[in-house]
Amino acid sequence: MTRIFLVLLFISLSGFGLARQNSPKNDFEAALEAIDREDQEAAFFHLENWLKSYPQDALAHWYMGQVYESFPGENTPFALEYYNQAINLNPQLASAYFSRGRIFLQMERFEAAEKDFLTFQNLPKGETNQIFFEKNSTQAGVSGIFTLQGNLSAKVFYHLGLCQMGMENYEKANEYFDQAIEIRPEPDYLTEKSQALLSLDRSNEAESVLITALEIDPDHFLAQERLALIRGKNPEELIEPLNIAVKNKPNEPQVWKKRAYYFLERENWKLAERDLKEALALDNQDAELYLYLGTIASRQQEWAQAEKYYSEGLFLDETNTQIILARGQARYQQSKLEEALADFIQLIGIDPTLPTAYYHRGITLLRMKRNQEACENLQLAANWGMEAAQEVIKKACQD
């Protein structure tokens, strides 16, 4: 599965417009100061106050989307709403297209993401003192700085490559990764290029690229894993760094979670569940842990237990679309059709353009013998590219 590396971007501007200069320190300026000291709650409070008085401020909407992305849990729908509003108010605000493109990429809406990244490329980026701060989701604080004119161009090519990978256009993806690497040879870019090459049956070139990635970062786990697979080695050997991390930091929930994900990818449900429960004992506010535990239960067709885990996750993060979809599927498997339908309706309410939501609502309505409604939903899913919907449309739409 292609890993998608997402960055949180913050921009420092020299001027904030006439309205922002009317007082020594207004809410907008206070929000920027809060962002600089990584106090996102304070930034949210000040931006909310500012937008009440200046609802047409596109840049403030963009900042609010950034703040939502920085919060724990699944806040993608809220961030997306603010990015959409920023673009509606100012179609020339380049940074909003980049931010929205990343969200579309995360949602696997590859064509929409590509369109935004290309729009971003073609728009003027403003003054050279516009600075983006890069934040790594696994680390605290700022992990890098780049400008709109500098390293960000490599990141755009990288994200365009990921879009092409999602659309299975591997030659084009490889070209974009090459452009990113030419600007800045990051291990992540090289590792994703190797996947494009493997998809094109060019394993020797993929091996060479991975060696280069590991020369830059010898600890890059995904590059290590792919190189081991190419060379026919046992990838189980790669668990050793994760074992060492657990041994050295047994009170850190993330190390248990990372090793659990390693087991999940290999369908070792027992060990994955063990590590997830260890992580949960250390941090019971992480909704993603419940998602993974529910996934394990679902894979073993323990639907009632899966539903329970998903419900606990949604208690912590009620708009998490992955968990809502998964719970709806678990309820569907238990023939709890009304409750499953409620989940799929909620999913559509959060993201009205999500094809899988209409597909699942359609097949649920079909089982409830509400064929006309099922037909409408399945046609929407099919129109948005969900091939599975085509298989049941005839049954739902027959007179």
From TrEMBL:
Keywords: Repeat, Signal, TPR repeat. TPR repeats lie at residues 154-187, 287-320, 321-354. SUPFAM superfamilies: TPR-like. Residues 1-19 form the signal peptide. InterPro entries: TPR-like_helical_dom_sf, TPR_rpt, Ycf3. The keyword Lipid metabolism does not apply. It comes from the Bacteria. PROSITE patterns: TPR, TPR_REGION. This is Tetratricopeptide repeat protein. It comes from Algoriphagus formosus. The lineage of its organism: Bacteria, Pseudomonadati, Bacteroidota, Cytophagia, Cytophagales.
